[in-house]
């Protein structure tokens, strides 16, 4: 088939998982009754420490790993009973680069589409479009091994889009790339999502999830420990953090402020954590009394990391 199948009925979740369990032959119980729904058009984050079950969950959903029990449906299509239909609805971007480095990007895309039954002329037209969308059209006839790291990552996404998937799953898509390349990929993914494709993202970069995703699930030790809207989960934090830029140097000892934690981030910056209910004016007054003049302040951006650590107890949330 040249196009993805139509889902069973309108209003179906893009991904519906019920009581999913996976026990490997060595006895490791990787998934312990996972249930979640991803709505059509969502940009959804799946977070968790190494060994939490993220890769197994993605593997089962993309039919690369056999489940022990439970149910997985893609737009209402059961991945066990109707595997081929379900897989035509999915585009998968794995963490590792897995295309032939001695092939040209244009040929990589066209041949990939051919595996899914897309007619060659249609595949050629589609390859031009996805490579233009990925800002790779000028590299279409170059050997892939000559591409930069960021270009190779974008080629992985372009290849996955050749089947016009309803659901795009990305497993650590920006792992190992610098921040400039990462932000360029964020732009690409936002455009794909805005065009209607549902995206599920696994990432260790927590600022990435906060920037891109509207909903998330946090998995730890094979169980979902929290899920819901990003904003609602972040609002559960009862503390907030600020960085205070100081005129001049810091005193040898920072003032003690009941309920707040003050640490010297460097010689001219204070790292402040305080309850949400606490009045900032009291903090400023105490600092002023100690001879500390605050020139400017900014909100810390690691709220999602803080939530992750609290829920999982994992102190190595970020890669």
Automatic annotation (TrEMBL):
Residues 15-246 form the ABC transporter domain. The keyword ATP-binding applies. One of its GO terms (molecular function) is ATP binding. InterPro entries: AAA+_ATPase, ABC_transporter-like_ATP-bd, ABC_transporter-like_CS, ABC_transporter_ATP-binding, P-loop_NTPase. Keywords: ATP-binding, Nucleotide-binding, Transport. SMART domains: AAA. The keyword Transport applies. This is ABC transporter ATP-binding protein.
């Amino acid at each position: 088939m040249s196009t993805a199948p139509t889902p069973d009925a309108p209003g179906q979740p893009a991904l519906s998982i019920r009581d999913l369990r996976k026990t490997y032959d060595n006895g490791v119980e990787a998934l312990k009754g996972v249930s979640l729904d991803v709505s059509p058009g969502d940009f959804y984050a799946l977070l968790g420490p190494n060994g939490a079950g993220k890769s197994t969950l993605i593997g089962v959903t993309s039919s690369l790993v056999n489940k022990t029990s439970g149910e997985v449906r893609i737009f209402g299509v059961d991945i066990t009973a109707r595997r081929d239909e379900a897989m035509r609805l999915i585009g998968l971007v794995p963490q590792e680069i897995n295309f032939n480095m001695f092939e040209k990007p244009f040929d990589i895309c066209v041949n990939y589409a051919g595996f899914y039954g897309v007619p060659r002329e249609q595949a050629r037209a589609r390859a031009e479009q996805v490579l233009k969308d990925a800002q790779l059209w000028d590299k279409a006839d170059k050997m892939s091994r000559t591409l930069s790291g960021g270009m190779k990552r974008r080629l992985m996404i372009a290849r996955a889009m050749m089947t016009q998937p309803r659901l795009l799953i990305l497993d650590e898509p920006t792992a190992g790339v610098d921040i400039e390349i990462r932000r360029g990929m964020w732009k690409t993914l936002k455009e794909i999502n805005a065009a209607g494709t549902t995206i599920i993202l696994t990432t260790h970069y927590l600022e990435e999830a906060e920037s891109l995703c509207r909903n998330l699930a946090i998995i730890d030790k094979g169980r979902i420990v929290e899920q819901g809207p990003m904003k609602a989960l972040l609002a559960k934090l009862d503390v907030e953090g600020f960085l205070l830029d100081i005129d001049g140097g810091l005193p040898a000892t920072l003032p003690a402020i009941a309920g707040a934690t003050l640490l010297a981030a460097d010689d001219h910056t204070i790292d402040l954590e305080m309850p949400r209910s606490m009045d900032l004016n009291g903090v400023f007054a105490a600092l002023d009394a100690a001879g500390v003049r605050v020139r400017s302040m900014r909100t810390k951006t690691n709220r999602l990391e803080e939530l992750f650590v609290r829920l999982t107890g994992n102190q190595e949330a970020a890669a």
